[in-house]
Amino acid sequence: MNFSLMSAPERDFETAKNQLVPLRFITCGSVDDGKSTLIGRLLWDTKAVKTDQASKLKSDSKAQNNGLDLPDFALLLDGLQAEREQGITIDVAYRYFSTSKRSFIVADTPGHEQYTRNMATGASTADLAIILVDARAGILEQTKRHAMIASMMGIKQFVLAVNKIDLVDYSHEIFEKIANEFLEFSLSLGVTDVVSIPVSALKGENVASNTGANLDWYEGNTLLTTLELATSRSAQTVGFRLPVQRVCRPNEGFRGYQGTVAGGAVKPGDSLVVLPASIPVNVTEIVTFDLVRNAAVAGDAITLVLDRNVDVARGDMICSLEAKPMMGKEFVADIIALASTGIEPGKRYWLKSASRRQRVRVEPFTTVDLNSGVWSDTERLEMNAIGKVRLKFEETAIFDTYAANRGTGSFILIDPEENTTIAGGMISELVAKNPQNLHDYKQGLVGDNLDESDDEKLVLMALPVAIAQKLQKSAIFEELKYDIAVTRIKRKNFKLLSEQKD
Amino acid sequence: MNLTQPEQKPPEQKPVLDPHLKALENEAIFIFREVAAEFENPVMLYSVGKDSSVLLHLARKAFFPGKIPFPLLHVNTGWKFEEMIEFRDQVVKNYDLDLISYTNPRGAKENITPFTHGSARYTDIMKTEALLTALNAGKFDAAFGGARRDEEASRAKERIYSFRTPEHKWDPRNQRPELWSIYNGMINKGESVRAFPLSNWTEADIWRYIRAENIPLVDLYFAKKRPVVERDGMLILASDKRLEIAKGEKLQELWVRFRTLGCFPLSGAIRSRAQNLDEIISEIQTATVSERQGRAIDRDQSGSMEMKKREGYF
Ligand SMILES: Nc1nc2c(ncn2[C@@H]2O[C@H](COP(=O)(O)OP(=O)(O)OP(=O)(O)O)[C@@H](O)[C@H]2O)c(=O)[nH]1
Ligand SMILES: [Mg+2]
Question: What is the pLDDT confidence band of residue A440, given thresholds at 50, 70 and 90?
């Protein structure tokens, strides 16, 4: 081929950024904190806004309330008429931009509590969350709700953008206060990778460049540089998983199972098992349009041919023998209620996970209060509540934990009358025998069924945030995380605690 | 026409796609298979343009070695570029496709043309109404479209599975949440879903993919000296006999190509010398205007795409 029109370095950039899958991130936080403005500004500064779009933006931003003679950058995102009329975001907008180093897919989510479902939609596929705070208002309940949903959905990188810093005289002190409080909160969620940046989304300060002397006290990276340096979610490493989407039978002689590899890898000759029937099979061929392949890995859309004629249908999962997923009729999951009906205990819903759809009854048992962080017992989950539930299936279900595999550990609940999606959930464990232990799940506390004499003593420590963050990032912490409880405490309570010894 | 014969057997050697394009391809194939498995009677909208060409290529990949298990629907306004119709028929023949071509009979009966009825009303009848009639006639419960979120601000808001009422209405304020890649395909009788496998592709991705996969395209995308007239700030191709050249308009031979294709009286050409894929890719990377700029339909008023979509337009 002839590449004469493109100069060599340009061509290099072209290939360099395409060697990575795009970084997927969201903006979230409370209403009006400047999420859409921030992304609009980012698109503007990375030249993703073309001249015809720019002139449309200028004519659309008529009633200027910012008094700075700048266009209303949020209008680049808020594309629905209802959004423009009300000046708020209602649904997620997906936008695409790139720098010479990296391509990005951003989902700008709504801050309004009423539209939490749309925020969750954006968060479910993201690698990183930019959480915005209005420097004048600080951290609000909605900020915490969004941070919590983001972390539950497996986002491990947070960027705190302390926005509208221009409206608090670029105060270093205010920035530090908010950044510290947020770091504490993130650590209690188990998120240790937190970068805080003071920004003015509207004026573009610290967005794509460090302009002006206003923020000379800040020494870190701009938002854009931070995004360029972020990591995409790494491929999941548990055993091979192929949720069967459909059976391909073009003629008598060919029978292939089509689906997208949801974990691990496969090659011809591998011995696998078809679940839930537990039929052992061997792979004879991996067929794709381009060529017969000698291996496929997570993410690949393939057609698998097996060595024997077995009954395999949509919804089955073909898995490696050594690392099988969990199978059973009762699981525990974290859940976010997304519909106005909430989640009704005992109601028969549809559950869809990977390619499998089955009937389930849902029993909520605990929910979190976002302000205090305290979990308490409940039997119902109202709209936008975050809680833990027990799932009771009529037929065998197949899952991994969400922590082990996002694709085979996530599910949605569908209302059978309305057909609407009413919740998103993440599997945390299979319930084998002792359902009474559920309340203690993940809390690292000792179960009731244990004999007094084995009761192991735990050590309680209170640490300054910076040390806690280091500790939480360590490998040993990662290894033991299910035996460790992290919570925030006030300094005055710490004094009481340190006097309380047994 | 640069349409190659279809491969009987997949080629042995082909450079691998870069990870970015591979991820987009995998996602699209997943969506195709999911819709084909969950719906009783899907159809794929095929408009002959570059996005449709990519969509068709992905559909062939998704179901290989089987055939595409649903028909293609072309809503033909009767005012498409001649080259588009020729190309379409050649593609259908080469790939052995099942194509439904539908033209709203009101067009001929009431003599509705883009010149006499204005772009808004013409689009309404010859595109939207035609589409809805064809979808109803086929009782299709799912329709694939090649729309991309980066095309326009209201498209940026649309789900991969976009729910439609029995009247084909889109309610952007009340979309179903869509978490991970778990799509909710449950609908009642009469309702339907529009599915968009190319949602996350950009214009640059489309072109790079066409180059990587060697996908045949209508020649109008490549620059050539063509006869055009300038009208309402657009360069209109003057090869169709039905175009009347008004007084004061000047027929010129210019180097032009099309960035998007629709009905010839409503699609503006751009001045360009980009004659091959490499040149097109480098041209769009440095372009200062967006791809929809040449389209009359978007110009009527801000938010007009959303209004059309709410009424059932793709
Ligand atoms: N002075 C100043 N104003 C800002 C800044 N960022 C945003 N604003 C203003 O804050 C208002 C709200 O901005 P949006 O971007 O719509 O807020 P949002 O967070 O997207 O709101 P929702 O999506 O509805 O939750 C607008 O009037 C912006 O112009 C900033 O850095 N400085
Ligand atoms: Mg917004």
Answer: very low
Domain covering B17-207+304-310, topology:
Rossmann fold (3.40.50)
Measured between alpha carbons, how far is residue B117 from residues A400, B35, B113, B124, B139 in Å?
58, 37, 6, 10, 30
Is the pLDDT at B40 greater than 70? The verdict is: yes
- Does the domain at A326-483 match CATH 2.40.30.10? Answer given as yes
Task: Measure Cα distances from B28 to A118, A357, A477, B58, B68 in Å.
Answer: 22, 21, 39, 7, 14
Query: What residues of A are in contact with residue B156 (Cβ under 8 Å)?
Result: 77, 79, 93-95
Query: What type of residue sits at position A99?
Result: T
Distance in angstroms (rounded) separating the CA atoms of residues A194 and A160: 7
pLDDT at B4: 46
User: Minimum mean pLDDT among A32-36, A89-93, A107-111, A461-465: which range?
Assistant: A461-465
Q: In the prediction, which pLDDT does B199 show? A: 97
Of A361, A424, A422, A359, nearest in space to A390 by CA: A361
Q: What is the pTM of this model?
A: 0.90
Contact status, residue A372 vs residue A298, Cβ threshold 8 Å: no
Nearest CA in chain A to B185: A419
Kindly report whether the peptide bond that precedes residue B69 is cis, defined as omega within 30 degrees of 0.
Answer: no
pLDDT band at B30 (very low <50, low <70, confident <90, very high): very high
Q: Which amino acid is at B161?
A: Y
Whether A84 sits inside 8 A of B289 (CB atoms) is no
**Is the Cβ atom of A164 under 6 angstroms away from ligand 1?**
yes
**Pairwise CA distance, residues A358 & A349, whole Å:** 8
The answer to whether residues B192 and B142 touch, using CB atoms and an 8 Å cutoff, is yes
Question: Tell me, which fold does domain A8-229 have in CATH?
Answer: Rossmann fold (3.40.50)
pLDDT at A241 over 90: yes
Q: pLDDT tens-digit profile of A323-340?
A: 999 999 999 999 999 999
Regarding the beta carbon of A93 and ligand 1, being less than 6 Å apart is answered no
Pick the CATH number of A241-320 from 3.40.250.10, 2.40.30.10, 3.40.50.720, 3.30.479.10: 2.40.30.10
Q: DSSP letters along A7-72, please?
A: -HHHHHHHHHHHTSPPEEEEEEESTTSSHHHHHHHHHHHTT-S-HHHHHHHHHH--S--SSSS---
Residues A237/A405, Cβ–Cβ less than 8 Å? no
> Do the Cβ atoms of A90 and A5 come closer than 8 Å?
no
Q: Which has the closest alpha carbon to A16: B19, B200, B285? A: B19
Test mutation, B18, B162, B182, chain A, max A CBs within 10 A: B182
Q: What is the DSSP letter of A201?
A: T
Q: Mean pLDDT across the stretch A91-102?
A: 93
Give yes or no for residue A166 CB within 6 A of ligand 1: yes
Quickly tell me which residue has 């907008």 as its tokens: A93
Number of A–B residue contacts, CB under 8 Å: 194
d(CA A138, CA A370) in angstroms, rounded, equals 15
The domain limits of chain B are 17-207+304-310, 218-296
Mean confidence (pLDDT) of chain A? 87
B153: three-class secondary structure by DSSP:
coil
Per the CB < 8 A criterion, the answer to whether A109 and A119 are in contact is: yes
* A245-271 mean pLDDT: 95
